[in-house]
Write a structure and sequence with these properties.
elongated
Length: 171
């Protein structure tokens, strides 16, 4: 089952790597990230962003031994759960969303999009195409989409970027 760890912000990738390296527990860990488009100096550039700052997702068998081994790792604050001792796990759909966002450990690339004749954004491919029904806002100016997901039953809004057709050559 997938569990969520609260970690020191900025240490997500280091904690995910330390979790995967723990012997005897067969832990699969990830901190989903994206090469986000940022407007700078009149042009667009990409910068690596963590999609869930302060959180790492770990697929593991939750036992007392795994709990104490993980809690010893630098940067780990707590397991998400009602009391911080008993971990809540992701639902099936939350785990599927996570698998898509984790992108097999590689940062997501911006979704490709185009404008139709009415100036509406049409998603053509990429991660946002998989989350069409979860998009709550598309901002044409900043090239960002707000996507509402749940993590352990709690609503979270993440930001993903997109690139409009023809802009790829400007980066």
């Amino acid at each position: 089952m997938w569990h969520v760890l609260q970690v020191t912000t900025g240490k997500e990738q280091a904690v995910a790597e330390a979790l995967a390296a723990l012997p005897d527990f067969n832990i699969k860990a990830c901190a989903p990230s994206e090469n986000r488009l940022i407007r700078k100096g009149g042009g667009w550039e990409t910068k690596l962003y963590t999609l869930f700052p302060g959180y790492v997702f770990a697929q593991l068998k939750y036992t007392a031994e795994s709990y104490y081994a993980i809690k010893k790792l630098p940067g780990v604050l707590r397991f998400l759960g009602a009391d911080g001792l008993h971990s809540d796990s992701l639902t099936y759909i939350e785990a599927e969303w996570l698998r898509a966002l984790a992108n097999e450990g590689e940062p997501l690339e911006p979704t490709k999009a185009a404008l139709n004749a009415d100036g509406e954004i049409i998603l053509q491919g990429g991660i946002l195409k998989s989350f069409t029904s979860r998009i709550i806002k598309l901002d044409k100016h900043s090239r960002k989409a707000s996507v509402e997901l749940s993590v352990c039953g709690e609503k979270k809004i993440i930001t993903l970027s997109f690139v409009l057709e023809g802009e790829e050559s400007e980066q």
